[in-house]
Design a protein that fits this description.
The protein is mainly alpha-helical. Helices cover 64% and strands 3% of the residues. The chain has helices at 5-11, 15-28, 30-46, 66-106, and strands at 48-49, 57-58.
Length: 123
């Protein structure tokens, strides 16, 4: 799963140097490796990926084609983190909108915000 190809290309370093960096990172932060492994294991069993607000994203880690499975596994490790971050941002924006409207209303003003996402966090 830990492919050195992408960091090798992005950082302009050799593949062996990129792999050494990856190995040292996971040696120093073993909890990250355990977390990523647990996400993949759960995705294979449940066919879904967790997010912070209990919104599951579908998983395709059961793909037979190795390239497709590799992509699905990389996506599986990123989705809970990126999805949770997006959920938290949506909640923060929603709270900010409510607070702004309250403050504007107290002063006799009105305000309007537009978004392109659902008003329900996690969707």
């Amino acid at each position: 799963m830990d492919s050195a190809r992408s960091p090798c290309q992005q950082l302009g370093i050799s593949k062996s140097e990129a792999q050494r960096f990856i190995n040292e990172y996971f040696a120093q932060y073993a909890g990250v490796r355990e977390y990523l492994d647990s996400i993949l294991a759960a995705a294979r069993v449940d066919n879904a990926l967790p997010r912070s607000l209990d919104v599951a994203a579908p998983s395709r880690t059961g793909e037979q084609e190795p390239a497709n499975r590799g992509f699905a596994e990389r996506t599986a490790t990123n989705t809970p983190l990126q999805g949770s971050a997006a959920d938290l941002i949506k909640v923060a924006i929603s709270v900010s909108i409510v607070n702004c409207r309250r403050a504007a209303s107290k002063r006799g003003y009105s305000c309007r915000f537009t978004t392109n996402w659902s008003s329900k966090p996690g969707r």
